[in-house]
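Cross-posting from the chemistry board since nobody answered there.

I work mostly on the small-molecule side, so proteins are not my area. We synthesized adenosine-5'-triphosphate and want a rough idea of how it might sit in this target. Sequence and SMILES are below. Is it possible to get a predicted 3D structure of the two together?
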Amino acid sequence: MSAGSTAPAIELSGAALAYGDRTLWTGLDLTVAPGEFLAVLGPNGSGKTSLLKMLLGQVPLSAGTARIAGSPVRTGNPAVGYIPQQKTMDEGLPLRGRDLVGLGVDGHRWGTGFRGRRARRAIVDDAIAEVGAQSYANAPVGALSGGEQQRLRVAQALVGDPTVLLCDEPLLSLDLANQHRVSDLIHRRRLRHDTAVLFVTHEINPILPLVDRVLYLVDGRFRIGTAAEVMTSEVLSELYRTEVEVLHVRGRLVVVGTGDAIDALGGAGELSTDCAHHEDHE
Ligand SMILES: Nc1ncnc2c1ncn2[C@@H]1O[C@H](COP(=O)(O)OP(=O)(O)OP(=O)(O)O)[C@@H](O)[C@H]1O
């Protein structure tokens, strides 16, 4: 049960997550407002995906509490939409685009009778239209491009009308045009429906104009704040415990010296930061 529309989308209090003896992070207090866009950054293994899994109810906290829309975290919560890390789907997969989207529908809410099936079909159609995937919704998913598959995954995550959208590197392996499309879809969703977004990424530049705050995790340490507050040489040097430099190059952030994949920010080519204003013309 939701505690009402005024409840924060996500509330973590004294949250810690450990696998056996290994604590990934501890003492995490975080309140995410409805409609807020939070980027979750950090090197490989810092616990970004585990944070999403905890919010999905798949991994328990080792300390503290976590609430979504006022209710304790649990599996199968229809208030949560999830875009998993992109994996290319098998060409032989006997699943059409619309079937994939339909997997995101909460069957209990609509029932199995004729009316339920019709209502279900209508919301699947709406979700497909929302991501502009009508022209390939009936094609087998394995025959679609990575960008088309990812748009359908966004539709699948949105079809249940979630309060919170958890995105695990949703732009990975997409070209620049599809990075714009997918981040625009997510951005528009939160503007129109006040859906809170947790967006795990190694590259902040494609979403920099959309981000309200950043949670940056490094080896159990973390900082939360606006990108301007967190993405500084001083803060990142403190988190990484080594000298890190954050450069501003033509509207992009280039991070040098972390020794991990986040340095790819500096070598990712001409990623512009105008996706907030980019319109999808398809
Ligand atoms: N079920 C599990 N049992 C034990 N250890 C796990 C489990 N799941 C993840 N880990 C470990 O916890 C650490 C954090 O993993 P996680 O996937 O959350 O990191 P991440 O920040 O998302 O990394 P990446 O950027 O590489 O995706 C890793 O060292 C991983 O091996």
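Reply from a structural biologist on the board:
Welcome over. Reading the output above for you: The chain has a mean pLDDT of 85. The chain has eight helices and twelve strands. Happy to explain the token format if needed.
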